[in-house]
Amino acid sequence: MALIEVENLNKVYKNFKRKEGLKGALINLFYREHDEIRAVDDISFSINSGELVGYIGPNGAGKSTTIKMLTGILIPTSGRLVVNNLIPYKQRYDYTKQIGVVFGQRTQLWWDIPVIESFKLLRKIYQIPKDIYDDRLSKFKDLLDLDPILNIPVRKLSLGQRMRCDLVASLLHNPSVLFLDEPTIGLDIIGKLSIRQFLEKINRELGITIILTTHDLKEIEALCKRLITIDHGKILYDGDIDGLRNRYTLDRSITFQLLENFDFDNLKEKLNFNSDVKLEKLDQLRLKINFSNESLNPAKIIENVIKEIEVNDIAIEEPSIEEIVGRIYSERKS
Amino acid sequence: MPTRPFPYTIIDGFVKYNEYMRISFHKMLAYRISYLIGIITYIIHVSVYYFLYKALYHQSSTINGYDLQQMVTYVSIGWISKSFYLNYIDRELTEEVKSGHVAMDLIKPIDFQLMYFARGLGQSLFRIVLFTPPIIVVTSCLFSISAPASPWHMLFFILSTFFSVLIYLGINYIIGLLSIFFLSISGILYSKNMIIELLSGLLIPLDWFPLWFQKISAFLPFQAIAYLPLKIYLGSLVGSELVLALILQFLWVIIIGFIGRLVWKLCQRQILIQGG
User: Fold this and answer.
1) Radius of gyration of chain A (CA)
2) What's the total number of domains in chain B?
């Protein structure tokens, strides 16, 4: 059975409408109209133990609402949600012992006191035996290079250092699922990289199931095998990253650096590709050919061009995952 | 992890919240300047009321049954007690609600109210160990404070102020929770402080007020914060009156604790449905 099961999950927020102007404000004091906002709209998915899933979508797509429901701090309006045989919001107390949560924008560490004191507090809260706690902490300490920062108050840590500590804080009680809401937001490349490697390692070695939301699609590409895309509360895509590439074929392109000036029209005639393939003259020495996956394979195109003209260099451009996802979002809007 | 048998769960539970106390203590240590300024503020408060009452007693030697010596003692001991029954969990709660940090507490296996009580007790503990002693020393050097009526009265006074700590904590917890329903709460916090100072009898003993006012305040929890313990210290309450005062305080601890739980239930529903 799957570890996380979500079926027809909905979340509707009620927001009261504010009327404009002084008159409106006065009316609001006595009478309020409500608007319904459907943040999560009938989504279903299931996640198996040990998976590392990326959950992406633009701002306001319903990512955080889903994560909040999964972590038990938001009650779904309707639908079924079971994690590890528990219903998060109903059995919150027991459920909290099985999950770790990191919100990139918040910290669960105590601001004014050294990091290690927060860890000690967590040990008591989760009632972790001393020897197990020491063991885990020393392991994480090595992996994330925490030794020099454990005795510094959290408010003096850099964002990257704080994030590493927050990750450890969410893992001390050995949760079976780890929820990460934008864990690398605002971090530099090195910070992102070290967290990425760490997540990969704990997923692989400790078998912790990880669900990760992010805006950084490179991160998803590097880390996750599976991707769930959500926008306007609905799931747009659920599957692996290659599947996404194949499904949303985008134009690829090849740019040829030529050895001598060329006659564009003449070359175009000679090559005689079908109408899907678009030729473009970038400058005297560069020719760009745009094509889609379905029309022709790149090898064929290169072969044909080389036959006709002398080529110095070739660059093939793949659509980045960002472009693909950007296209999904915009398709959805139109 | 298997659940441990009954007596251990209580011990484990205590250890868990005890840790919050320790953390709060630690947190208070982080701010040395506010610690020093705090001490000076209390000395100023006591001095102001000392000179005020001294001027008042120029006319007659007793007012409403208190002589000047008793009044100075009342004010000094009143502010000395306040120096440790005070806590800031109302503000902390408000800040956590505003920043959305409450979510981080909801994802931990803890009881929200007990956690905040432990944090408040941690603050009080810090104050009684490091904040109150210098205030006692300075105040008793500057003004002449009477000893408690008897060693027994001292003992009951200590018990009574312990209840004050819990009642103040309970009220602060409820007020802090209200921030979940209101966008701005600074006005409420400010008026709460004013109301407690007045109705607890810290500024003026409650038996100086008109009878109707006394009758109302007898049904409110605030008198149990300062007025009752101070009357015990002065020896004005003896025998059954004293026992009754302590029972009344104890009842208020229970009632306010219970109301706090109810309010949290409502708040939790608000947070869980509207996302804070």
Assistant:
1) 26
2) 1
Residues of chain B with pLDDT under 70: 1-14, 275-276
pLDDT digits (tens, 9 = 90+) for A317-332: 877 777 777 777 777 6
Look over chain A and give the mean of its residue pLDDT values, rounded to a whole number.
87
Predicted confidence at residue A280, as pLDDT, reads 83
Burial (CB < 10 A; 0-12, 13-18, 19+), residue A32, is exposed
- The sign of the torsion formed by the CA atoms of A321, A323, A324, A326 equals positive
Q: Do B104 and A125 touch (CB under 8 A)?
A: no
Contact B272 A74 (CB under 8 A): yes
Q: Does residue B249 sit within a domain?
A: yes
Contact A253, A314 (CB under 8 A): no
- CA separation for the pair B265, B68 (Å, rounded): 48
- The percent of chain A in helix, strand and coil, each rounded to the nearest 5, is 40, 30, 30
pTM tops 0.90? no
Say if A191 is an interface residue toward chain B (CB within 8 Å). no
Dihedral sign for Cα A176, A225, A72, A136, please: positive
Query: In this structure, are residues A301 and A254 in contact, taking their beta carbons and an 8 Å threshold?
Result: yes
Question: Residue B224 is part of which domain span?
Answer: 6-275
A65 near B CB under 8 A: yes
Task: Find the residue in B nearest to A155 (Cα).
Answer: B30
Tell me, what's the pLDDT at B10?
59
Which of B30, B103, B273 comes nearest A112 by C-beta? B30
Any domain includes B1: no
The alpha helices in chain B, defined as continuous H runs, are 6-29, 32-56, 68-85, 89-99, 102-106, 112-126, 132-142, 151-178, 186-199, 211-218, 227-234, 239-274
